[in-house]
Amino acid sequence: MMNMDQIYLITSIPGYTPQISQLISMMNYARYTTLEEVKGLSKDQLDYLLDTESNSIGALLLHFAAVEYAYQVLTFEKRFFNDDELSIWGPALELGSAGQEQIRGHELTFYLNKLEEVRNRTLEYFKSVNDDWLHHEEQFWYDKQANYYFMWFHVIEDEINHRGQIRMIKKRMKV
Questions:
Q1: CA neighbor of 89 nearest in space, from 106, 110, 113, 114
Q2: Of 79, 81, 106, 163, which is the most exposed, with the fewest CB atoms less than 10 Å away?
Q3: Sign of the dihedral defined by the CA atoms of residues 58, 120, 32, 141, in that order
Q4: How far, in Å, are 23, 36, 45 from residue 151 at the CA level?
Q5: What CA–CA distance (Å, rounded) separates 114 from 31?
């Protein structure tokens, strides 16, 4: 769904309403820059930990997929993770020691496939809603209202934030 001829345009995308298209355009650019940052990394590089408190690049990539999946469940399915989903996505959502222990030993293609699988699911969900849906409000963090537009902005913001971690890890990597 990423049109490289339009990667720097926040524009209309066929099959989606105008604001949904703009949101997808921003998500595409964020993902493009993430993919460029991790291109060619080895399994050892993906598993590398700076110290006992850090996340690996692989864990951060899986975190991006887990956050996006979580917001699919929250905003489209109007529920929280079930036990099966928590066992799959929990370590990637929480990161920390669970992420360090459980998210390792995978080639880059494993993470790229997860990111693509989740993104394709998001794009299908986005086809089912219109711009009004983005403005639906619910109680969110700290007992404050948030709309779905903000929640999906957070998906983008979370990836951009953690991509900064990826860049720092790569600069300090000793693998």
A1: 114
A2: 79
A3: negative
A4: 11, 25, 31
A5: 13
30 near 159, Cβ under 8 Å?
Answer: yes
Number of helices followed by number of strands (H, E) in the chain:
8, 2
Tens-digit pLDDT string for the chain (175 aa):
688 888 888 999 999 999 999 999 999 999 999 999 999 999 999 999 999 999 999 999 999 999 999 999 999 999 999 999 999 999 999 998 999 999 999 999 999 999 999 999 999 999 999 999 999 999 999 999 999 999 999 999 999 999 999 999 999 987 6
Greatest C-alpha distance within the chain? 49
**CA pair distance 34, 148, nearest whole angstrom:** 23
Residue closest to 170 by CA, chosen among 63, 37, 61, 43: 37
